[in-house]
Amino acid sequence: MSEARAIIRRHSFFSRWSEDELDALLDQCSRRVFNVGEPLWSEGDPGDAAYFLLSGRLERTRTVRPDGHRSEQYTEPGSLLSLSSLVAGFEHTS
Fold first, then answer.
1. pLDDT over 90 at 20, yes or no
2. How far apart (Å, rounded) are the C-alpha atoms in residues 92 and 48?
3. What is the signed CA dihedral for 28, 29, 30, 32, rounded to 10 degrees?
């Protein structure tokens, strides 16, 4: 988990957290590997987790009316996804 700690530490949200606070967070985390095209979540799913991108690439797509789909690419290790859904309990909109 030291690799994950170093990556998470780079994110401004966690930059001032102590090592003990980061360790407590990481103790509650699990590492998951996804296959190409496998979704982390689907639109309407409960926002019950946040994700850090440790490696690879992720595309987030959402429907925007009236013009269709919008996509965002995440490629930077340490990208934080879905924190607002986790904190506020929103359903996923992407």
1. yes
2. 9
3. 160
